[in-house]
Amino acid sequence: QVQLVESGGGLVQAGGSLRLSCAASGRTFSSYAMGWFRQTPGKERELVSTISRSGGRTYYADSVKGRFTISRDNAKNTVYLQMNSLKPEDTAVYYCAASIVVGSPQRPNEYAYWGQGTQVTVSS
Hints:
Elements: E1 4-7, E2 10-13, E3 18-24, E4 33-39, E5 46-51, E6 58-60, E7 68-73, E8 78-83, E9 92-99, E10 113-114, E11 118-123
Parallel strand pairs: 2-11
Antiparallel strand pairs: 1-3, 3-8, 4-5, 4-9, 5-6, 7-8, 9-10, 9-11
């Protein structure tokens, strides 16, 4: 069982930066691949980025490639999403999620544990 708590969301102007954090409970954080997803009203949850258990493998959606960076600190049971050059279309609720699937899983149904989400709003 893993409990996830996101933080770091907020309101930022276009071109600005935010750093999301996701703190996990439990002593087996390094056993989980981690992902960041986002969702806007009326749309399906969208994959943003994933990172493997060791941090050696990452994946980014084309829409955020080159602007967002995912990382993890297994000693602190935390995964991060550094978001730079933010655009209004990045506005969404961002969720972190944990998966036991090896590698960097990309489908929401591969993730068993989810945080409550944090709102990111980018103004133009």
